[in-house]
């Protein structure tokens, strides 16, 4: 789709150029102080890219810089993409959100809820409600992530190999059956916990569509939108653009955990929850699709009512995400709800930062962040590769810095 570049004078879309430069000055310190290897930020308004900047290295060893075409692991920013993919099947009538997951994955029948006891002898009871597709989309299924919980339930997940970034099993069908063999944290629909649910959704997509997840995403999302650099691995010929992955240690120092060429590994089990590799240009196109109500450059993937429905707060009774969460999680903050793949701002005052009601967002484990603000017609992307740095503090500062630059 051409090289990523600024497409307008910021003033043309009501943004102040000098104030936008505060973004760069602020986040440059994170690199200069050794807290991030490098980053890229993109601010778009009314479909025009008004601010694009990059700073630091995509690989600290070689000093290769972050550039507009750098490939990043986007981790949980994969989830909104898979949620959109699922909703294309919804629009075709291939499934309903109320369908029990067991209709597509038989092992999800008769699930049980953890009550007490050690991992070696857990005490469970029958779930009062089947896990439905809606529960998977909203993280209200009772499934968890193994790395989240230090208790017996977390141990059960870890014993099943469900704690790391690489999913176990031979394929998504095998993975889904492994997940179904574990107890739930709570009855579906009675709480919110960030979880492996979207990986299970990947298997639902396969069954409902008859296509492998990677093929479905390529044919139904990436190719129509021109997202040529997005997939579950990077081709060998593109690895010169790949960013290395770092982890932030207890002392705040960065340690290399996966060099850029690690992106060439083709996963046996594609992760619909965290597995995609992408670029700022590709993800920008995905966000423009959302902002425009499901259509971009003459390609319509979803209807505008579906996008509107996905980006409402779906928590029962309009519950606050922080209050409804059953497991401590940094992204669960007061003033926000959760929709079908996104956190949604309900009350900016409670969020404690400038934001618009109806703004929706999510992030990834390596510090990647995005949001879409329909009221201001703004999309924002921040990409880096630092596991453990945390997306909340990046998003909080970035919101401040973007909103202060809006002058009309």
TrEMBL record:
Query: What Pfam families does this protein map onto?
Result: Beta-lactamase (PF00144)
Q: This protein's superkingdom?
A: Bacteria
Record domain Beta-lactamase-related: where: 23-402
- PANTHER family, per the entry: BETA-LACTAMASE FAMILY PROTEIN (AFU_ORTHOLOGUE AFUA_5G07500), BETA-LACTAMASE-RELATED
This chain's protein is named CubicO group peptidase (Beta-lactamase class C family)
Native organism: Thermopolyspora flexuosa
